Amino acid sequence: MIAYYVHHQGSGHVHRASSIAAQARTPVVGLSGRPRPAGWTGDWVDLPDDSDGVDASSRDVTAGGTLHWVPRRHAGLAERMRRVSETVARASLVVVDVSVEVALLARLHGVPVVVVAQPGERTDRPHRTAYDLAERILAPWPVRPAGGWPDGWTAKTVHLGALSRFDAHPAPAAGDPCRVLVLWGRGGIDVGPDRIAAAAAATPGHRWVVAGPHPGPGAWPANLTWLGWVDDVWAELSAAGVVVTHAGQNALAEVAAARRPAVVVPQRRPFGEQDATAAALARAGIAEPTGSWPEPAAWPALLARAAQRGGTGWDAWSTGTGAARAAALLDGLAA
Fold first, then answer.
1. Most buried residue among 7, 142, 260, 332 by CB atoms closer than 10 A?
2. How far apart are CA 188 and CA 202, in angstroms?
């Protein structure tokens, strides 16, 4: 059995885990603070909250800088780790996406660990512990230089390319060139609705639709529609001529699967995760990355450049086979 820990923040971790588990021959048990995802066929272990009521300034949550989150005498953390221990002790392999603490706990049970890497600066002491102890490191992006990574990490890293729940879908035909999809995620957004409205107002020849949190009633431009969170993201991607999105791995994987022209606006994340990804896209010439949300006057030219660039560059970012490759590797390690 493979035990697969899924981080609760955002939706990318659970989409990635679901895609890989669906391709694996070995039974996969999920562990997470998130609910069991639709379509998950194996067992699912619900993990309690380990942050409720925590004052990070007074509970030594990093254990002197050796870990990322271990608040003292927290009942939720204690029960969470008990449930993890109970599961990983029965496993032949543990996949961690992502938690330094779970990776260390699993290895202390004598179980081999595969760590899913995150972009950004990951050479702090806790990340070094997790990456050092890992049997393999799965990188859900194409091969690219990893500044500051020790040779030992590079040698055991498998670059999968981006993984999307839509990888099995054929890329749709070109969308409406005047339709702009703003695709947000659940991991946090730096851009307020007024700035999106100003961008729409500056591009009256385009129709903007926003898949993400709904701001409620307002004096919004006529060419701006707030969809709220949508169930059928693929339909919105297929209809769009250009996608404006953040630099989270899941959002980019879904844009890549649809091969859509894109403007990528990195959001603030720990360890510079999205900034690192946006920089990689810029180097590869795949999309139109920006350092921050552009001023209204910049949007007409920015959308034109993205449309002219097109979406074929995503071929280098996502082959559509990442989940199958990951599953085959995990099956081999678990055997």
1. 260
2. 25
Strand order in the sheet with 113-116: 44-46, 28-32, 2-6, 93-97, 113-116, 136-139, 157-159
- Cα 163 from Cα 321, distance rounded (Å): 8
pLDDT in tens, 219-249: 999 999 999 999 999 999 999 999 999 999 9
What is the Cα–Cα distance from 67 to 69, expressed in whole angstroms?
A: 6
What does the alpha-carbon distance between residue 172 and residue 259 come to, in Å, rounded to a whole number? 8
* Low pLDDT (below 70) residues in the chain: 145-147
Tell which residue, 99, 46, 45, 49, has the closest CA to residue 76.
49
Place of tokens 């590797």: 329
191 and 293 in contact (C-beta within 8 Å)?
Answer: yes
Instruction: Identify residue 133 by its one-letter amino acid code.
Output: L
Establish whether domains 2-163+320-334 and 176-316 are of one fold.
yes
Q: For the domain bounded by 2-163+320-334, which CATH number is listed?
A: 3.40.50.2000
Domain boundaries, the chain: 2-163+320-334, 176-316
pTM score, whole prediction: 0.93
Report long-range pairs for 293-296 (Cβ below 8 Å, ≥24 apart). 293/190, 293/191, 293/195, 293/199, 293/265, 294/199, 294/265, 296/198, 296/199, 296/201, 296/202
Listed residue (202, 199, 230) closest to 214, CA to CA? 230
List the CATH code of the domain at 176-316: 3.40.50.2000
